[in-house]
TrEMBL record:
This is Ubiquitin-conjugating enzyme E2 J1-like. Residues 9-159 form the UBC core domain. It comes from the Eukaryota. Gene3D superfamilies: Ubiquitin Conjugating Enzyme (3.10.110.10). The chain crosses the membrane at residues 229-249. InterPro entries: Ub_conjugating_enzyme, UBC, UBQ-conjugating_enzyme/RWD. Keywords: Membrane, Transmembrane, Transmembrane helix.
């Protein structure tokens, strides 16, 4: 690597992120290719309680030389029934939140945004979205054995079962909610053709059919949290019951 390349902010930043992300988490694993710091491969786990549960999906992230000032592109490689494969997916600016990409967003937040996006959106909008839940579930079963030619490992080898740190997913989803709120992941706009009859389905912003992806994400987080609250209430009720029964017992047989 030349001295100039080492000095570039993109190289510095990518090397820093590579160091931080050098171990698989319960939800993803990603590292740069040995020969190219500007191309990373990742495996993400399908979110639980969705058709993607148990699935592991491999993909590439390609960084522009201006990273982190400009966002990376994503190419999914494992069939998933949600994102088309072998196409560049862009992190585009949402119609609803036309702010730009933030340099503070990281590879981790991008990966969490991909996971958060998987179960979102109704069927039928983008080519691969036409898959039914059962088709997605079938692909999820197959996905762990997908082997990347560059990584020479299967998804399961790249992302083995790692015990989750309690609350980890909520923390990560909250961290990613800003990205999800402001960006849409969509296929790269096709090169302008002379005659364009109607906008290709792929070019329609997901934001339009979606309303607000951040809203859905917040709902997901809320649902997970309310499950925890419910358990706390059950426990409290149990102890109150226990105390009451003791009291009754004392009164009856004193
Ligand atoms: Zn790979």
């Amino acid at each position: 690597m030349s001295r100039m390349a080492i000095r570039s902010p993109a190289v510095k930043r990518l090397m820093k992120e590579a160091k931080e992300l050098n171990k698989p988490t319960a939800h993803f694993f990603t590292q740069p290719l040995e020969e190219n710091l500007f191309e990373w491969h990742f495996t993400v786990k399908g979110p639980s309680d969705t058709a993607f549960e148990g699935g592991r999906y491999h993909g590439r992230i390609v960084f522009p030389p201006e990273y982190p000032m400009k966002p990376p592109s994503i190419i999914m490689l494992t069939e998933n029934g949600r994102f088309s494969v072998n196409n560049k997916l862009c992190l585009s600016i949402s119609n609803f939140h036309p702010e730009s990409w933030e340099p503070s967003w990281s590879i981790r937040t991008v990966l969490m945004a991909i996971i958060a996006y998987m179960p979102m959106h109704g069927e039928g909008a983008i080519g691969s979205l036409d898959c039914t839940s059962s088709e997605r579930a079938k692909l999820a079963v197959r996905s762990s054995t997908y082997k990347c030619r560059d990584c020479k490992k299967t998804n399961l080898e790249l992302l083995p079962e790692v015990e989750e740190v309690p609350g980890e997913i909520q923390e990560l989803l909250e961290e990613a909610s800003d990205v999800v709120k402001r960006l849409v992941i969509k296929p790269e706009a096709p090169v302008a053709k002379k005659q364009r009859q109607e906008p290709p389905q792929d070019a329609i912003s997901l934001g339009e059919e979606l309303n607000d992806p951040a809203q859905e994400l917040r709902q997901q987080i809320f649902q997970q949290k309310s499950k925890q609250y419910l358990w706390t209430i059950y426990l409290l009720l149990f102890f109150i019951g226990l105390l009451l029964s003791r009291r009754l017992y004392l009164i009856d047989y004193k």
